[in-house]
Design brief:
The protein has helices spanning 33-40, 46-63, 108-111, 115-120, 149-159, 197-215, 219-223, 229-237, 258-268, 270-274, 298-318; strands spanning 2-3, 13-19, 24-31, 71-78, 84-90, 94-100, 123-130, 138-143, 164-173, 179-188, 242-244, 248-249, 251-252, 283-286, 293-296. With 319 residues, it is of the alpha+beta class. Strands 1, 2, 3, 9, 10, 11 and 12 form a 7-stranded mixed beta sheet that branches. Helix 9 crosses helix 11. GO terms for molecular function: protein folding chaperone; unfolded protein binding.
Protein backbone atom coordinates (compact mmCIF):
# COMPACT_ATOMS: atom_id res chain seq x y z
CA UNK A 1 0.00 0.00 0.00
CA UNK A 2 1.23 3.48 -0.75
CA UNK A 3 -0.02 6.75 0.67
CA UNK A 4 0.24 10.28 -0.56
CA UNK A 5 1.51 12.28 2.44
CA UNK A 6 -1.74 12.46 4.38
CA UNK A 7 -2.48 13.55 7.95
CA UNK A 8 -2.67 10.72 10.45
CA UNK A 9 -6.45 10.62 10.72
CA UNK A 10 -7.70 7.27 11.98
CA UNK A 11 -11.13 8.19 13.39
CA UNK A 12 -13.96 10.56 12.48
CA UNK A 13 -12.77 10.63 8.90
CA UNK A 14 -13.36 9.44 5.36
CA UNK A 15 -10.47 7.52 3.82
CA UNK A 16 -10.57 7.39 -0.03
CA UNK A 17 -8.75 4.51 -1.71
CA UNK A 18 -8.12 2.91 -5.09
CA UNK A 19 -7.75 -0.78 -5.90
CA UNK A 20 -4.89 -0.91 -8.39
CA UNK A 21 -5.71 -4.17 -10.14
CA UNK A 22 -9.24 -3.12 -11.13
CA UNK A 23 -9.25 0.68 -10.94
CA UNK A 24 -12.22 0.47 -8.57
CA UNK A 25 -12.29 3.32 -6.07
CA UNK A 26 -13.85 3.43 -2.65
CA UNK A 27 -14.38 5.15 0.69
CA UNK A 28 -13.97 4.01 4.26
CA UNK A 29 -15.86 6.09 6.83
CA UNK A 30 -14.87 5.67 10.48
CA UNK A 31 -16.90 7.47 13.15
CA UNK A 32 -15.89 7.39 16.79
CA UNK A 33 -16.22 10.39 19.09
CA UNK A 34 -18.44 12.18 16.58
CA UNK A 35 -21.10 9.48 16.47
CA UNK A 36 -20.92 8.84 20.20
CA UNK A 37 -21.48 12.56 20.86
CA UNK A 38 -24.49 12.70 18.55
CA UNK A 39 -26.15 9.61 20.04
CA UNK A 40 -25.37 10.58 23.64
CA UNK A 41 -27.60 13.66 23.39
CA UNK A 42 -30.70 11.53 22.86
CA UNK A 43 -32.34 8.80 24.90
CA UNK A 44 -33.03 6.52 21.95
CA UNK A 45 -33.38 2.76 22.50
CA UNK A 46 -30.24 0.87 21.48
CA UNK A 47 -31.74 -0.56 18.26
CA UNK A 48 -32.55 3.01 17.13
CA UNK A 49 -29.06 4.20 18.05
CA UNK A 50 -27.55 1.37 16.03
CA UNK A 51 -29.69 2.16 12.98
CA UNK A 52 -29.04 5.91 13.24
CA UNK A 53 -25.31 5.20 13.61
CA UNK A 54 -25.36 3.24 10.36
CA UNK A 55 -27.45 5.99 8.76
CA UNK A 56 -24.97 8.70 9.70
CA UNK A 57 -22.03 6.64 8.41
CA UNK A 58 -23.97 6.02 5.19
CA UNK A 59 -24.66 9.74 4.81
CA UNK A 60 -20.98 10.57 5.19
CA UNK A 61 -20.00 7.84 2.74
CA UNK A 62 -22.44 8.99 0.07
CA UNK A 63 -21.74 12.69 0.58
CA UNK A 64 -18.03 12.33 -0.02
CA UNK A 65 -18.52 10.64 -3.38
CA UNK A 66 -20.03 13.89 -4.66
CA UNK A 67 -18.57 17.28 -5.52
CA UNK A 68 -20.75 19.93 -3.91
CA UNK A 69 -20.57 23.10 -1.87
CA UNK A 70 -23.41 23.04 0.63
CA UNK A 71 -25.34 20.32 2.43
CA UNK A 72 -25.97 16.68 1.56
CA UNK A 73 -29.04 15.33 3.33
CA UNK A 74 -30.20 11.75 3.74
CA UNK A 75 -33.75 11.26 5.03
CA UNK A 76 -36.21 8.44 5.58
CA UNK A 77 -39.97 8.67 6.02
CA UNK A 78 -42.05 5.66 6.93
CA UNK A 79 -45.00 4.37 8.92
CA UNK A 80 -43.05 2.49 11.59
CA UNK A 81 -42.22 3.44 15.20
CA UNK A 82 -39.33 5.51 13.79
CA UNK A 83 -41.21 7.48 11.11
CA UNK A 84 -38.27 9.71 10.22
CA UNK A 85 -34.49 9.78 10.33
CA UNK A 86 -32.33 12.62 9.05
CA UNK A 87 -28.57 12.86 8.56
CA UNK A 88 -26.77 15.69 6.85
CA UNK A 89 -23.15 16.36 5.98
CA UNK A 90 -21.78 19.72 4.89
CA UNK A 91 -19.06 20.06 2.29
CA UNK A 92 -16.80 21.06 5.21
CA UNK A 93 -17.36 17.71 6.95
CA UNK A 94 -19.82 18.73 9.69
CA UNK A 95 -22.09 15.78 10.51
CA UNK A 96 -25.40 15.78 12.40
CA UNK A 97 -28.50 13.63 12.58
CA UNK A 98 -31.58 12.62 14.55
CA UNK A 99 -34.33 10.02 14.67
CA UNK A 100 -37.98 10.70 15.40
CA UNK A 101 -39.38 7.99 17.65
CA UNK A 102 -43.18 8.05 18.05
CA UNK A 103 -44.07 4.46 18.87
CA UNK A 104 -42.84 1.61 21.01
CA UNK A 105 -39.82 0.04 19.37
CA UNK A 106 -39.39 -3.73 19.31
CA UNK A 107 -36.67 -5.36 21.39
CA UNK A 108 -33.38 -6.11 19.68
CA UNK A 109 -34.25 -9.81 19.55
CA UNK A 110 -37.49 -9.07 17.68
CA UNK A 111 -35.77 -6.73 15.22
CA UNK A 112 -33.13 -9.30 14.32
CA UNK A 113 -31.68 -8.74 10.87
CA UNK A 114 -34.61 -6.64 9.63
CA UNK A 115 -34.33 -3.17 11.22
CA UNK A 116 -35.84 -1.32 8.24
CA UNK A 117 -39.30 -2.95 8.15
CA UNK A 118 -39.53 -3.25 11.95
CA UNK A 119 -38.34 0.26 12.82
CA UNK A 120 -38.90 2.42 9.72
CA UNK A 121 -41.80 0.53 8.17
CA UNK A 122 -42.96 1.22 4.63
CA UNK A 123 -41.89 4.50 3.08
CA UNK A 124 -38.99 6.03 1.20
CA UNK A 125 -35.35 7.07 1.40
CA UNK A 126 -34.37 10.43 -0.12
CA UNK A 127 -30.99 11.93 -1.03
CA UNK A 128 -30.77 15.71 -1.42
CA UNK A 129 -27.88 18.01 -2.35
CA UNK A 130 -28.59 21.66 -1.54
CA UNK A 131 -25.93 24.14 -2.67
CA UNK A 132 -28.01 27.18 -1.75
CA UNK A 133 -28.60 30.35 -3.71
CA UNK A 134 -29.68 29.88 -7.31
CA UNK A 135 -28.05 26.49 -7.67
CA UNK A 136 -30.31 23.60 -8.63
CA UNK A 137 -31.12 21.06 -5.92
CA UNK A 138 -30.49 17.43 -6.75
CA UNK A 139 -32.76 14.81 -5.23
CA UNK A 140 -33.06 11.05 -5.56
CA UNK A 141 -35.86 9.03 -3.96
CA UNK A 142 -36.15 5.28 -3.54
CA UNK A 143 -38.61 3.00 -1.77
CA UNK A 144 -37.57 1.52 1.57
CA UNK A 145 -37.14 -1.90 0.01
CA UNK A 146 -35.28 -4.57 1.93
CA UNK A 147 -34.44 -5.65 5.44
CA UNK A 148 -31.47 -3.33 6.01
CA UNK A 149 -30.19 0.10 5.01
CA UNK A 150 -27.67 -1.67 2.80
CA UNK A 151 -30.54 -3.34 0.92
CA UNK A 152 -32.31 0.01 0.43
CA UNK A 153 -29.22 1.75 -0.90
CA UNK A 154 -28.34 -1.12 -3.21
CA UNK A 155 -31.91 -0.96 -4.54
CA UNK A 156 -31.33 2.73 -5.34
CA UNK A 157 -28.04 2.08 -7.12
CA UNK A 158 -29.56 -0.74 -9.15
CA UNK A 159 -31.89 1.86 -10.65
CA UNK A 160 -29.16 4.43 -11.20
CA UNK A 161 -27.28 4.67 -14.49
CA UNK A 162 -24.64 7.00 -13.05
CA UNK A 163 -22.41 4.41 -11.41
CA UNK A 164 -22.38 1.07 -9.62
CA UNK A 165 -21.79 0.96 -5.90
CA UNK A 166 -21.69 -1.57 -3.10
CA UNK A 167 -21.82 -0.65 0.56
CA UNK A 168 -21.21 -2.36 3.90
CA UNK A 169 -22.44 -0.68 7.10
CA UNK A 170 -21.86 -1.29 10.77
CA UNK A 171 -22.57 0.40 14.11
CA UNK A 172 -22.24 -0.71 17.70
CA UNK A 173 -20.54 -0.11 21.02
CA UNK A 174 -16.86 -0.59 21.64
CA UNK A 175 -15.08 -2.11 24.61
CA UNK A 176 -15.52 1.10 26.58
CA UNK A 177 -19.25 1.28 25.85
CA UNK A 178 -18.96 4.22 23.43
CA UNK A 179 -20.73 4.09 20.08
CA UNK A 180 -18.89 3.66 16.80
CA UNK A 181 -19.98 3.39 13.17
CA UNK A 182 -18.45 2.62 9.80
CA UNK A 183 -19.30 2.60 6.10
CA UNK A 184 -17.14 0.79 3.57
CA UNK A 185 -18.01 1.31 -0.09
CA UNK A 186 -16.64 0.63 -3.55
CA UNK A 187 -17.77 2.36 -6.76
CA UNK A 188 -17.17 2.13 -10.47
CA UNK A 189 -18.18 4.44 -13.30
CA UNK A 190 -20.44 3.07 -16.05
CA UNK A 191 -18.89 1.40 -19.07
CA UNK A 192 -18.48 4.08 -21.73
CA UNK A 193 -18.56 1.51 -24.49
CA UNK A 194 -16.05 0.99 -27.26
CA UNK A 195 -14.38 -2.04 -25.65
CA UNK A 196 -14.61 -5.63 -26.75
CA UNK A 197 -16.66 -8.37 -25.11
CA UNK A 198 -13.58 -9.88 -23.46
CA UNK A 199 -12.56 -6.53 -21.96
CA UNK A 200 -16.09 -5.94 -20.63
CA UNK A 201 -16.12 -9.42 -19.10
CA UNK A 202 -12.76 -8.81 -17.42
CA UNK A 203 -14.05 -5.48 -16.06
CA UNK A 204 -17.12 -7.23 -14.67
CA UNK A 205 -14.93 -9.89 -13.06
CA UNK A 206 -12.78 -7.17 -11.45
CA UNK A 207 -15.89 -5.48 -10.06
CA UNK A 208 -17.29 -8.72 -8.63
CA UNK A 209 -13.94 -9.46 -7.00
CA UNK A 210 -13.78 -5.99 -5.39
CA UNK A 211 -17.31 -6.41 -4.01
CA UNK A 212 -16.50 -9.91 -2.74
CA UNK A 213 -13.34 -8.72 -0.97
CA UNK A 214 -15.21 -5.79 0.58
CA UNK A 215 -17.89 -8.15 1.89
CA UNK A 216 -15.28 -10.10 3.87
CA UNK A 217 -14.85 -7.16 6.27
CA UNK A 218 -16.14 -8.20 9.69
CA UNK A 219 -18.08 -5.88 12.00
CA UNK A 220 -15.34 -6.18 14.63
CA UNK A 221 -12.78 -4.97 12.07
CA UNK A 222 -14.90 -2.08 10.85
CA UNK A 223 -15.47 -0.81 14.39
CA UNK A 224 -12.07 -1.60 15.93
CA UNK A 225 -10.47 1.72 17.05
CA UNK A 226 -7.06 0.05 17.17
CA UNK A 227 -7.22 -1.00 13.52
CA UNK A 228 -6.41 2.04 11.39
CA UNK A 229 -8.11 2.61 8.03
CA UNK A 230 -4.81 1.88 6.26
CA UNK A 231 -4.45 -1.43 8.08
CA UNK A 232 -8.02 -2.50 7.39
CA UNK A 233 -7.83 -1.65 3.68
CA UNK A 234 -4.51 -3.47 3.33
CA UNK A 235 -6.01 -6.50 5.08
CA UNK A 236 -8.92 -6.56 2.63
CA UNK A 237 -7.33 -5.62 -0.71
CA UNK A 238 -3.57 -6.17 -0.48
CA UNK A 239 -3.59 -8.98 -3.06
CA UNK A 240 -4.86 -6.54 -5.70
CA UNK A 241 -2.84 -3.56 -4.52
CA UNK A 242 -4.52 -0.67 -2.76
CA UNK A 243 -3.59 3.00 -2.57
CA UNK A 244 -4.93 5.45 -0.01
CA UNK A 245 -5.25 9.18 -0.52
CA UNK A 246 -5.63 12.17 1.75
CA UNK A 247 -8.39 11.50 4.28
CA UNK A 248 -11.12 14.03 5.03
CA UNK A 249 -11.98 14.91 8.61
CA UNK A 250 -15.55 14.63 9.91
CA UNK A 251 -16.85 16.23 13.06
CA UNK A 252 -19.95 16.41 15.21
CA UNK A 253 -21.13 19.95 14.54
CA UNK A 254 -24.69 21.25 14.50
CA UNK A 255 -25.62 24.32 12.47
CA UNK A 256 -28.30 25.59 14.82
CA UNK A 257 -27.89 28.94 16.61
CA UNK A 258 -29.87 31.25 18.83
CA UNK A 259 -30.19 33.69 15.93
CA UNK A 260 -31.70 31.06 13.62
CA UNK A 261 -34.09 29.91 16.33
CA UNK A 262 -35.28 33.46 16.92
CA UNK A 263 -35.85 34.08 13.20
CA UNK A 264 -37.80 30.85 12.93
CA UNK A 265 -40.12 31.97 15.74
CA UNK A 266 -40.69 35.37 14.09
CA UNK A 267 -41.54 33.58 10.85
CA UNK A 268 -44.28 31.67 12.68
CA UNK A 269 -45.96 34.93 13.72
CA UNK A 270 -46.46 36.46 17.15
CA UNK A 271 -50.08 35.30 17.39
CA UNK A 272 -49.09 31.69 16.76
CA UNK A 273 -46.43 31.94 19.46
CA UNK A 274 -48.91 32.99 22.14
CA UNK A 275 -50.19 29.41 22.33
CA UNK A 276 -46.66 28.06 22.77
CA UNK A 277 -45.61 30.20 25.74
CA UNK A 278 -44.76 28.86 29.16
CA UNK A 279 -46.33 30.29 32.32
CA UNK A 280 -43.47 32.78 32.63
CA UNK A 281 -44.24 34.19 29.18
CA UNK A 282 -41.22 32.69 27.40
CA UNK A 283 -41.20 30.44 24.37
CA UNK A 284 -38.66 27.67 23.83
CA UNK A 285 -37.09 26.14 20.73
CA UNK A 286 -35.29 22.79 20.89
CA UNK A 287 -33.05 21.66 18.05
CA UNK A 288 -33.99 18.15 16.93
CA UNK A 289 -30.40 17.48 15.93
CA UNK A 290 -28.33 18.50 18.95
CA UNK A 291 -31.16 18.70 21.54
CA UNK A 292 -30.06 22.18 22.63
CA UNK A 293 -32.83 24.51 23.78
CA UNK A 294 -33.12 28.29 23.54
CA UNK A 295 -35.70 30.40 25.42
CA UNK A 296 -36.98 33.77 24.25
CA UNK A 297 -38.84 36.51 26.09
CA UNK A 298 -41.10 38.98 24.30
CA UNK A 299 -38.29 41.51 24.55
CA UNK A 300 -35.89 39.05 22.87
CA UNK A 301 -38.38 38.53 20.05
CA UNK A 302 -38.84 42.30 19.66
CA UNK A 303 -35.10 42.59 18.98
CA UNK A 304 -35.16 39.76 16.43
CA UNK A 305 -38.26 41.15 14.71
CA UNK A 306 -36.68 44.60 14.43
CA UNK A 307 -33.54 43.11 12.89
CA UNK A 308 -35.58 41.11 10.35
CA UNK A 309 -37.56 44.24 9.44
CA UNK A 310 -34.36 46.30 9.06
CA UNK A 311 -32.82 43.72 6.73
CA UNK A 312 -36.00 43.56 4.66
CA UNK A 313 -36.04 47.36 4.31
CA UNK A 314 -32.39 47.43 3.19
CA UNK A 315 -33.01 44.71 0.65
CA UNK A 316 -35.99 46.60 -0.74
CA UNK A 317 -33.85 49.69 -1.23
CA UNK A 318 -31.33 47.78 -3.33
CA UNK A 319 -33.97 46.41 -5.69
Amino acid sequence: MSAQSAPALTDDCVQPFLIDASGVNGRLVRLGGAIDGILARHSYPDPVKRLLGEFLALGAGLATTLKYDGVFTLQTKGDGPVPMMVADVTSEGAVRGFAQVTGETPASEAIGDAPVPRLLGEGYLAFTVDQGGDMDRYQGVVELSGATLEDCVHHYFEQSEQFSSAIKLSAGTGRDGSWRAACLSVQRLPDEGGTGAQAREETEDDWRRAVTLMATAKEAELLDPDLTPDQLLFRLFHEDGVRVFEPRALDDRCRCSRERSGRMLIALGREELSDLKFDDGTVEVTCQFCNRSERFTDADLDVVEAEVAREAAEEEKTQ
